[in-house]
Amino acid sequence: MCGILAVLGCSDDSQAKRVRVLELSRRLKHRGPDWSGLYQHGDCYLAHQRLAIVDPASGDQPLFNEDKSVVVTVNGEIYNHEELRKKLANHKFRTGSDCDVIAHLYEEYGEDFVDMLDGIFSFVLLDTRDNSFIVARDAIGVTSLYFGWGLDGSVWISSELKGLNDDCEHFETFPPGHLYSSKLGGFRRWYNPPWFSEAVPSVPYDPLVLRHAFENAVIKRLMTDVPFGVLLSGGLDSSLVASITARYLAGTKAAKHWGTQLHSFCIGLEGSPDLKAAREVADYLGTVHHEFHFTVQDGIDAIEDVIYHIETYDVTTIRASTPMFLMSRKIKSLGVKMVISGEGSDEIFGGYLYFHKAPNKEEFHRETCHKIKALHQYDCLRANKATSAWGLEARVPFLDKEFINVAMAIDPESKLIKKDQGRIEKWVLRRAFDDEERPYLPKHILYRQKEQFSDGVGYSWIDGLKAHAAQHVTDKMMLNASYIFPHNTPTTKEAYYYRMIFERFFPQNSARLTVPGGASVACSTAKAVEWDAAWKNNLDPSGRAALGVHLSAYDAETPLSNVPSKVIDSIPRMMDLPGVAIQS
User: Fold this and answer.
1) Burial class of residue 244, CB neighbours in 10 A (0-12, 13-18, 19+)
2) Which domains does the chain have, with CATH numbers?
3) Catalytic one of 2, 44, 369, 523
4) What is the per-residue pLDDT across 22-73, written as a single tens digit (0 to 9) for each?
């Protein structure tokens, strides 16, 4: 992922201002270590830090139209750029970059072209003919973007908080699926899919339609001119991504550049059952598998760096981001610049454990809609920033626009978990790839429930974090938490510890408002907490909080030490964090 920074209408075209913009842009250099670019037109500045994935030789930014009257700085990948170029046959392109189409689409279609883009993106487009500009973010918010206002009347846009938090009077998260137009003076939503209304769909489940839609989503993400791989945890989602990639890699341009041997990556605590599962899947698919180990202390030592890069104090996100952050550094050291990952499946198909308690298909569907709409604050934030911290790009096929439309149109009755009928979580996805003639995965992997680490291995990560926080946060500090942090008041010592670190890096009120809050059990929304009365008194983001579902649920009367290890190892795991073998 690249880094973009724009300052527009700042009433200052001095050399000092240019130097300041350059300084702030360098805060994003980790996102794009391959090249830096800065364009100035009067008091408007567009800066870019490039991670070169497509056309590394000539695709440096900012990008222009033919006469350079339209200027674009963009972070993203446009998967249908070749098709769009055909529609723009009368235009002359300066580079082979997939993002080069944006300026020309604006010339041809005005501000209404954004929905034509199939990909992930955040961009700022400046029309120097009248100094108007537009800003847009992809449908789900896979790429990160922030929007700020200066006291001098300027507008600021940055891929990360750290690019604007010190210079803006107020700033916010730029909403996914939206466009800001300086001509209209406000935001409008360009992404309006059928599922967004949350009306319950009725399309009958067709496993082949779902299969082909996901295969297409993976295949289009093989567009690359640099070495790449897949994150593989051994869970369903990452294993399917790896299987499809391995199956279709041979016929792609990427294979011509880098060969047909797929590389896979996994990280975990020593002895993790998921590491074993990932090796089994890698052996079955024939990938070159790279297994990395980390210790609880390694993770604790990285917490401050993680919070600085991920820019959140959300407990679940920090727990899950840390191993992904460590793994990304290892992957980049091998010369890999892009990975394909499995985020989004649990939100679309109701894969979290608390979905077992969904009272009906209407509530199930509404919860999946809410989860998808919030992804930019959680898993997308983690996947984007944990990898970008080391100049690595993550692509997420489950969040493909076309695939989401297909998956969210399915009658949710088919998604409901019905154990008496042999339907476990994400049954519709598992069934879609159950091919007897050309198996995608071994049957026991395809229908394998997400495994829980044993207490001494997996839970030691979270328990270690809690113990570390307890050494730095006293009971007295917790008594005053509501006065120190009146917004999103931390209710645990772990949350308080993360909040202290976040506030040190990002002390502005606007910064703390970018992080979501509210009651949650096992990653649920606040509304889903109402599904089970017992959950209201056991609010925790861990899967173990799903009382009555998770066999190792928190229970004072039945300590985990009394549960046989063979039983623990067969417990469904709460999340499938691609490539990461930890309990979140």
Assistant:
1) buried
2) 3-192 (3.60.20.10), 196-535 (3.40.50.620)
3) 2
4) 999 999 999 999 889 999 999 999 999 988 888 787 778 899 999 999 999 9
